[in-house]
Amino acid sequence: MSTKTLSPKIFACSQSTELAEKIAKEYGIPLGNVKTTHFSDGEFQPAFEESVRGRRVFIVGSTFPTADNLMEMLLMLDAAKRASARHITAVMPYFGWARQDRKDKPRVAIGAKLVANLLQAAGATRIMTMDLHADQIQGFFEKPVDHLFASTIFLPYIHGLELDNLTIASPDMGGSKRAYAYSKFLQSDVVICYKQRKKANVIEHMELIGDVKDKNVILVDDMIDTGGTLTRAAGLMMERGAKSVRAICTHPILSGDAYEKIQNSQLTELIVSDTIPLKKQVSKIKVVSCAALFADVMHKVQSNTSISDQFLM
């Protein structure tokens, strides 16, 4: 019997086809064929159009709402398991439902834990993701988790700006660890925004901890949803004398009127990755692809070599 290791295959969930194509090109193999049948009531059934028996399979799909995106990932994991794939990696550049990582009030679900259970039950033997909303979500899994950091792709972009008097900022207290990690590599100062919310996505009050006068500020966050926090923070910093304010956000959820807020804000630019496809193009939003990063880590997973050189933070 041959002991030759079969080459891996990369497949895409429909919401992440463009990113998966880039990843497959960077990896050096064609994207696998998937055919999805749609029923009139909204049900759908993805099917692999080629054999995956005995192979390592990478299924690329960010699980941002709607819930159909998560369901498609689960169905494809289950299909790969039942087709006798040897290893099945759920490649989730954006891990959705991650803001529900704890019980922050009575009688609520821990959605991130539920999603972890579902992925494992469906057949995932490994999880690959980037910039989780909370690091501890890795502990919800009993399978290996490759948690990549977008700093790998964003830091070269920041260096290329060649900004003087650079200051890194966090839009809230929860992101201070991320801001300090960036500032360590960039040898810059750090400022923190303190905010109080009336309810989800609605800020009641914001205050700035630190000095931004005559500084070029870069706000760093893991995701941008409505854009309210970042645009308000940018306005506050410009009021306090900042020379310019930029923002770096890994996952561009950008719901509601977020695109208009960004375009009309005092942000010089918003730099995002392509974990979530943009709904439209606006001049202030720049996209830096994470495809090469994921392809490199997939190569190393396939060859069982260390990926620690990708952990800049």
Automatic annotation (TrEMBL):
For this protein, the record's CDD domains field holds: PRTases_typeI (cd06223)
> SUPFAM superfamilies annotated for this entry?
PRTase-like
The alphabetized UniProt keywords are:
ATP-binding, Kinase, Magnesium, Metal-binding, Nucleotide biosynthesis, Nucleotide-binding, Transferase
Q: Name one GO molecular function term.
A: ribose phosphate diphosphokinase activity
Superkingdom of origin: Bacteria
Task: Reply yes or no: does the keyword Repeat apply.
Answer: no
Pfam families assigned: Pribosyl_synth, Pribosyltran_N
- The Ribose-phosphate pyrophosphokinase N-terminal domain is annotated at 9-123
PROSITE patterns referenced in this protein's UniProt entry, alphabetically: PRPP_SYNTHASE (PS00114)
What's the Enzyme Commission number for this chain?
A: 2.7.6.1
Question: Which PANTHER family does this entry report, sorted A to Z?
Answer: RIBOSE-PHOSPHATE DIPHOSPHOKINASE FAMILY MEMBER (PTHR10210), RIBOSE-PHOSPHATE PYROPHOSPHOKINASE 1, CHLOROPLASTIC (PTHR10210:SF41)
Name of this protein: ribose-phosphate diphosphokinase
Q: Taxonomic lineage of this organism?
A: Bacteria, Pseudomonadati, Bacteroidota, Flavobacteriia, Flavobacteriales
